[in-house]
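Suppose you are handed only two things: the residues of a chain and a line of SMILES describing manganese (II) ion. What would the bound structure be? This form records exactly that question and the answer produced for it, so the two can be stored side by side and reused later without any lookup.

QUESTION INPUTS
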Amino acid sequence: MSNLPDPRIGDIILPYSEKNFELADVILIGVPTDEGIKRNGGRIGAAQAPDEIRKQLAKLTPDSSNGSITKIKITDFGNVTGNSLEEIHSKAKDAVSNFIKEDKIVIALGGGHDITYPLASGFHQGIGTKDFSLVNIDAHLDVREKKNGLHHSGSSFRLLIEENILPGKNFTEFGIQQFSFANSHLQWIKDQSAAVVFHDDLYGKHVSLEFGGLLSKELYTYISFDIDSIRSGDAPGSSAPSPVGFRAEDALHICYHAGLHPTTRMLDIAEVNPLFDLDQRTTKLAARMIASFLLGITCR
Ligand SMILES: [Mn+2]
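ANSWER OUTPUT
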């Protein structure tokens, strides 16, 4: 008898077209890469993540006790493709630069964490090469040097700083785990005047409030979320899982606060690996993280 509306997020994501791009507040883009993880000695599979996360995102409802994300318009650009990692990176950089120039909020789905170097480069271009701030939520520092002259999943933040795209003082590493970094890398990142927040030092604190307190009020902000910062019990499908880390609920609250914060213009989620997932636990969590970020934007 009744015909009460019961939509899913899949129903409200607009197909990509010139008109829908103009209408959209938020653009979703997939950057399916594995090569950067391979170069860094990790286990491959992350290239399958964008489509698997989309499947889980589509099934969620847009409603929460805080509001409904039906209030904002979202379109999905689809996946960036190419014959090499460098070609995919170059196309993803250009796409993001254009989205940001057109005043969109961008959600990028990796792929390996190598994607943040081209994506943040495109972001920087899009805001007119002004200074911006970046928070990397990660178990690792990701400031390794290139390997055999090639960028990989552990070198994004070194390249962004060395190439003067991201000033070190505007960069925060959040959730770094013990026994997961080299002292030489920690020293290097401190020498760049970046802030490092260790996961251990957040123990017993309100994680999302600590995170929210770090966000810049003046500069446009880019949030990069490496799924390996979440404990493997909650996110087993990761390129480099760890038994300790943030809880699933921490990740959702961080994403909500990231979306709520007025200077946030971009979120990327990297290193989800569906090949090692258990019962879609990780892709479902990534989908919930996106929904929480969208809800934050709705509640601005
Ligand atoms: Mn990382």
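WHAT STANDS OUT: The pocket of manganese (II) ion is lined by residues 113, 138, 140, 142, 226 (CB under 6 Å). DSSP finds eleven helices and eleven strands in the chain.
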